[in-house]
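Q: How would the structure tokens look for this protein?
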Amino acid sequence: MIGQLFALLSGDLEPIQQAAILMQLAARLFVIVFCVSVHEFAHALAAKKLGDNTAFMRGRLTLNPAKHLDLIGTAMILIVGFGYAKPVPVNPGHLQNIQFKKKRVKKGMAIVAAAGPASNLAMALIFHVIRSLVPFLALAGVDHMHIAMISFFFYWVVYSNIALAIFNLLPIPPLDGSRILDLFLPIRASMWMHRNERYFMYGIMGLFLLVFFVGRLF
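A: Here is the predicted structure in token form.
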């Protein structure tokens, strides 16, 4: 994306190429401001429905992007198309008042974790339907070029939501998929995995940055 922006600023691109880059950037910004906020809101809502008000009390049961966005995670979405937001705080012991039933606590955490990627898949479906209706704008006199750009915008919104869902479902802490994986792990293995969350996260970030920079070379 950075290379495309430099090309855009250089003025060497055709108008159609410039418009495509602007639509892709607009789509990513929309995903960051709206879709990522919906993802985090879904986590907070699921937790509240299951009896934990921690996220609600900390102002995370909201669609306000300022409450959810993380600087590095946002930059990653802009640059490589994958990223993350601030983790929604959840107290497992408050989920349906099941403090002493570890298996049920795991199920509660898995449901809360799955709510985020599920919201991305739901948005991908909704925006796919909207994109399928874009050609009908021709009936309102919208020219072909503008219809193509609008369709391209929604294509990237759909693509980004699917990518975010898949990325967050990876069974690597602290991603949502690791909470789902917990259902199938013994307690000791689960504790070890989450005790080393930050190292897993450093590894993920390093891998994506490596792939990004290697990709720029070819």
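The first helix runs from residue 2 to 10.

Residues 173 and 196 are 8 Å apart (CA to CA).

Upvote if useful.
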